[in-house]
Design brief:
There is one protein chain. This protein is α+β, with helices and mostly antiparallel strands. The strands form three sheets. The chain has a seven-stranded mixed β-sheet with strand order 3-4-5-9-8-7-6, sandwiched between helices. Strands 13-12-11-10-14 form a five-stranded antiparallel β-sheet, with no helix packed on it. A two-stranded antiparallel sheet has the order 1-2. Helix 2 crosses helix 3. The longest helix is centred in the C-terminal third of the chain and has 22 residues. The chain starts with a helix and ends in a 5-residue tail after the last strand. The relative contact order is 0.11. The protein binds biotin.
């Protein structure tokens, strides 16, 4: 939620120069004393803010990896994504939290963020390791105007937005493992869990929640549980640099807002397909499709406008793979 704190931070950051106390008061409609109080609080939290009597305040530096509601909100440049933001130091899982807020009427774009989850959820009933201090865990509420069969495409939209946001911020070459895992150098850095709530008549979507977990600042494989060490990695491990979580989250939300709007106008992935396919790992390579009805191999040829994976079997037959219970692997491991 926007507060005097996040507004003052945003003003200082966006100006990059001195902002006078009076300007802050005028812009935010608050008293001098209120501004002064917030500046002092921020300084206490480790923000380096210079105060020069005749010129005003200047933000010199934010504390390293500060991850708080005001820090994230002060970095947002969106119309709806994250404009209502709820931040928890610790929660069970941001997905059920977001569902609860949505049930209570939270608007489109409401975002629940946690520094730690004690019951993080993965797909297919798996858990999602969610320790404090190193990762991004968030869930966004989406209120679509389209029919339920289009909902699975939103996960692919989110995968593209996250993959590109990470690339923009870190320069890492992010790949998308269909439909929605993001990998760097063959290891997973992002998981997405989308859930849908239907109207009581079961014919329309009430809301969707898209939950995203990004491994950001784990320093080494030892920080992952034993069973994930071969297949998981973090942005810091791959880039060699600490990544600013608040900045990355703000960028993901901005990208998602833009991509989702483009998708909502088209109601197919046609407008995003080229960008999605350019990141699709294993394109034109042999993949194994783990279908509960029977495994098969074939060459992955990209996606359809509605998000199915196109697989060409050795027999020459083309199969459209629907996300859901099916997973797709390369022939030699996870990717
Ligand atoms: C996967 O299995 O790949 C999906 C993982 C999704 C994890 C995110 S973290 C934020 C949100 N809250 C959860 O409990 N899960 C999702």
């Amino acid at each position: 939620m926007k507060t005097d704190r996040s507004d003052i931070l945003a003003c200082l950051r966006n100006s990059g120069d001195y902002v006078s106390g009076q300007q802050l008061c005028d812009r935010l409609g608050v008293s001098r004393t209120a501004v002064w109080k917030v500046i002092n609080q921020l300084k206490e939290e480790g923000y380096r803010i210079e105060s020069v009597p005749s010129r005003g305040y200047r933000l010199i530096e934010s504390p390293a990896d500060i991850y708080s509601e005001s820090e994230i909100v002060s970095r947002l440049h969106t119309k709806w994504a994250g404009q209502r933001l709820i931040f928890f130091e610790s929660t069970g899982s941001t997905n059920p939290d977001a569902k609860r807020f949505a049930e209570e009427g939270a608007p489109h774009g409401t975002t629940v963020v946690a520094d730690r989850q004690t019951a993080g959820r993965g797909r297919r009933g798996r858990s999602w390791e969610s320790p404090a201090g190193s990762s991004i865990y968030f869930t966004i509420v989406i209120r679509p105007s389209f029919s339920p069969e289009k909902a699975s495409m939103v996960t692919l939209v989110m995968a593209l937005s996250v993959a590109e946001a990470i690339h923009e911020l870190t320069g890492l070459d992010t790949g998308i493992k269909w439909p929605n895992d993001i990998v760097v150098n063959g290891k997973k850095v992002v998981g997405i869990l989308t859930e849908m709530s239907m109207t009581p008549e079961m014919n329309e979507i009430q809301f969707l929640v898209a939950g995203v977990g990004v491994n950001v600042n784990q320093g080494s494989a030892e920080e992952f549980p034993q069973e994930l060490r071969e297949t998981a990695t973090s942005l810091k491990m791959e880039s060699g640099r600490q990544v600013d979580r608040a900045g990355l989250l703000a960028r993901i939300l901005a990208r998602f807002e833009e991509d989702y709007e483009a998708f909502e106008r088209a109601l197919t992935l046609s407008v995003l397909k080229e960008r999605y396919e350019s990141r699709l790992v294993g394109r034109d390579a042999m993949v194994r499709v783990l279908d509960p009805a029977g495994e098969y191999t074939g060459i992955s040829r990209g996606i359809t406008d509605t998000g199915e994976l196109i697989v060409e079997k050795e027999t020459g037959e083309t199969v459209l793979v629907y996300a859901g219970e099916v997973s797709v692997r390369g022939l030699y491991g996870y990717v």
